[in-house]
Amino acid sequence: MTTVAKQKLTFNQFLEQYPEDGRYELVNGEIVRILATRQHEDIADFIADGMKEEVKLRQLNYKVSDRIVLATQTQEGKEQGRNPDVSVVDLNVWRSNRLAYSALREPIQLAVEVVSTNWEDDYIDKLDEYQCMGITEYWIVDYLAIGSRTYLGNPKTPTVFVYVLNESGVYQATAFKGDDRILSHTFPELTLTMDQILNA
Q1: How many whole angstroms separate alpha carbon 98 and alpha carbon 143?
Q2: pLDDT in the model for residue 6
Q3: pLDDT for residue 156 is more than 50
Q4: Considering the domain boundaries, does residue 6 fall inside one?
Q5: What is the pLDDT of residues 47-81, one digit of tens each?
Q6: Paired residues of 36 in beta bridges
Q7: Is residue 98 one of the residues assigned to a domain?
Q8: Is 74 helix (H, G, I), strand (E, B) or coil?
Q9: pLDDT tens digits along 2-25
Q10: To the nearest whole number, what is the mean pLDDT of the chain?
């Protein structure tokens, strides 16, 4: 009996075959559907809405979206396609090719991932890929406090981790809990706390 290995997709093939019935990522050469709970969606929408309000209020040159797919790479050089819960991209980058798909190979300004049961993806895999891509700021929103105690401490409490690239291209993390105001490099005047996110 002969088994035929399934061909791994490239990022371009992933875009060409991208299904129209939801959100998907390219993980290890395969198309993987992203299914989120209603609370997960509510939290992502709440954060996106707050950022959109900041863009409008401060007249910032950003686009905020939940539909942008990013071409990332693993440390081993494997192509991945990631779809952050919230993406913030410079309008000049976004409008540089308006006929292209809503997929980018250029680093965006900010990516937000709301943590699901597969928390290692956000804390480890995507962290590495986004850092390698050069995304300036990355938020991990662990509203269920399901990440490891290594990250969350003991007892584990809901936390937003804000990672910002330093001059060496390495992320520096700051944790925000409870009524701490989340400090954002991209949105310095944004007023948002973990407690507000939990009540979204």
Answers
A1: 35
A2: 66
A3: yes
A4: no
A5: 999 999 999 999 999 999 999 999 999 989 999 99
A6: none
A7: yes
A8: coil
A9: 444 467 999 999 999 999 888 999
A10: 93
Task: Extract the tokens encoding 189.
Answer: 């005047």
Domains: count for the chain: 1
Cis peptide before 155 (omega within 30 of 0): yes
Give the residue among 125, 175, 119 at the shortest CA–CA distance from 147.
Answer: 119
Show the CA angle centred on residue 95, arms to residues 89 and 100, nearest 5°.
Answer: 100
The token pair at 126 is 């995507």
111 to 4, 21, 163, 193: CA distances (angstroms): 37, 23, 10, 17
pTM above 0.85, yes or no: yes
The domain in which residue 37 lies consists of 11-198
The token duo for 7 is 């061909």
Establish if 2 belongs to a structural domain. Answer: no
Q: Quick check: is 5 in a domain?
A: no
CATH code at position 156: 3.90.1570.10
